């Protein structure tokens, strides 16, 4: 899912990241690209307009243009705007103080209500709740059978009765859950191909009779703008408390996810990502934003790094690298900085799983190695630290003795240092556009 949107956004932002400085023009052009990418992903045009306007204002702000890493800053802005659009914090189900809590699932026919009822029942039961399911879709006998089959497969109870009146059925099921100690009642309702008045009246009655505060709209992400429009209509009639966005495993372009919250003001609470009953996830705005931008937790990493290294210091290092003046002493400083970020494996684990840094997240790091590297550099004379080229064979032997490490390790360090210089040079030219030279450890 979201592949084309991610690809386009990533490409645009990659171009920006490569720039040491960005100008107004760069930002304007990128905004145009972002706008196109969102429209192509089927995001509602009003949402796109506001999104880009707000982004542009921030991106053209002093902070970004003057920053050392303007491209990165823009990426961060895009990500923050996406998170904002998607609702910032995950939105949880509200349970009543006095159980049972009724949860009514509504939506168009085929959107995934019945499947989601089963998925949610299982999810709740795994959370330690005791859910009961009921279908009020009395118009199609097959609908009742469908939920019964799901209940059997999940080994979770489904309420049935003689009644063929949807509101009556819901009331009976509610009384049954209270009497039998079920703490959640999931009400799977009938759907229509289009929203119609009779159905809305029926759903509204069910909501009122059960005093249901959780009314979840089940919307099919594959239907794009239609899902958004019907969500707006359902919301107008039903006071929705949230959305379950289904079929995000398919080739949905993602526009629905990005528009629903903004258009309805209703949070996405869960997403359906497959036909299996396990395929239900709590919706995390930040994770989806990250996924769209294909960036793993790299922003957390940037934030951490920002906390450790101050900009001025970073500027000095960058200048040194550009002028080829990066020394072993600087290398040692950098090693110390990196270690301050935390255990290295954890740091590498935050890198994106795709792109040029692919695979680095799985590298095993021996923390002791870092201490050894530092010991070796400490055993060098200031002159050696300032210019690695003087470190000949006899000096290497002396350094090895002084640090208590084998000569082979000293050799390796010098080699690594040379490679790191090379790599940093290409990083300083914008690493996301280029392949990284292989690291030697
Ligand atoms: N791929 C995929 N299919 C889903 C998902 N949710 C539901 N479906 C499928 O969508 C179809 C309609 O689902 P159903 O629950 O009967 O929809 P209802 O008419 O709203 O009750 C079924 O074939 C489901 O297997 C999902 O998250 N991913
Ligand atoms: Mg159904």
CATH topology of the largest domain: Rossmann fold
Helix amount: 55-70%
Q: Can you count the helices?
A: 20
Which parts are unreliable, with pLDDT below 50 for 5 consecutive residues or more?
A: 430-441
The geometry reads as: elongated
Query: How many domains make up the coordinates?
Result: 3
Strand content: 5-15%
The appropriate CATH architecture of the largest domain is: 3-Layer(aba) Sandwich
Task: Give the strand order of the largest sheet, numbering strands 1, 2, ... along the chain.
Answer: 3-2-4-1-5-6-7-8
Give every kind of bound small molecule, once each.
guanosine-5'-diphosphate, magnesium ion
Q: Give the CATH H-level superfamily of the largest domain.
A: P-loop containing nucleotide triphosphate hydrolases
Whole-number mean pLDDT: 82
User: What's the CATH C level of the largest domain?
Assistant: Alpha Beta
Q: Sketch the topology as an H/E string, one letter per element.
A: HHHHHEHEHEHEHEHEHEEHHHHHHHHH
N-to-C terminal Cα separation, in Å? 36 Å
């Amino acid at each position: 899912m979201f592949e084309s949107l991610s690809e386009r956004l990533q490409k645009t932002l990659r171009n920006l990241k490569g720039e040491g400085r960005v100008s107004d023009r760069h930002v304007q052009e990128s905004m145009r690209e972002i706008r196109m990418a969102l429209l192509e992903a089927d995001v509602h045009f009003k949402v796109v307009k506001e999104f880009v306007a707000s982004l542009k204002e921030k991106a053209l702000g002093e902070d970004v243009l003057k920053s050392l890493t303007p491209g990165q800053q823009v990426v961060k802005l895009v990500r923050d705007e996406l998170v904002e659009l998607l609702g910032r914090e995950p939105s949880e189900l509200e349970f009543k103080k006095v159980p049972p809590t009724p949860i009514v699932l509504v939506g168009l026919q085929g959107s995934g209500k019945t499947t989601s009822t089963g998925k949610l029942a299982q999810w709740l039961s795994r959370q330690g709740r005791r859910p009961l399911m009921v279908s009020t879709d009395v118009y199609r006998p097959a609908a009742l059978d469908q939920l019964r089959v799901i209940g059997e497969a999940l080994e979770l109870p489904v309420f049935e009765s003689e009644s063929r009146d949807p509101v009556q059925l819901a009331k009976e099921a509610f009384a049954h859950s209270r009497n039998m100690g079920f703490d959640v009642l999931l009400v799977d309702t009938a759907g229509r191909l289009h929203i119609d008045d009779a159905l809305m009246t029926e759903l509204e009655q069910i909501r009122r009779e059960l005093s249901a505060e959780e009314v979840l709209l089940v919307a099919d992400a594959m239907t794009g703008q239609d899902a958004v429009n019907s969500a707006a209509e359902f919301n107008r009639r039903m006071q929705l408390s949230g959305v379950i966005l289904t079929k995000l495993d398919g080739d949905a372009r993602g526009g629905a996810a990005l528009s629903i919250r903004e258009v309805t003001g209703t949070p996405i609470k869960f997403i359906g990502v497959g036909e299996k009953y396990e395929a239900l996830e709590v919706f995390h705005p930040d994770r989806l934003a990250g996924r769209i931008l294909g960036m793993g937790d790299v922003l957390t990493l940037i934030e951490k790094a920002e906390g450790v290294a101050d900009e001025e210091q970073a500027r000095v290092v960058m200048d040194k690298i550009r002028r080829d003046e990066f020394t072993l002493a600087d290398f040692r400083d950098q090693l110390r900085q990196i270690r301050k970020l935390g255990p290295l494996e954890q740091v590498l684990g935050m890198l994106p799983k795709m792109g040029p840094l692919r695979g680095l997240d799985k590298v095993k790091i021996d923390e002791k190695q870092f201490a050894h590297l530092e010991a070796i550099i400490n055993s060098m004379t200031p002159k050696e630290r300032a210019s690695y080229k003087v470190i000949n064979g006899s000096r290497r032997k002396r350094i090895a003795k002084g640090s208590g490490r084998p000569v082979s390790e000293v050799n390796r360090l010098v080699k690594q240092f040379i490679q790191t210089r090379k790599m940093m040079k290409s990083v300083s030219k914008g690493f996301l556009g280029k392949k990284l030279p292989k690291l030697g450890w």
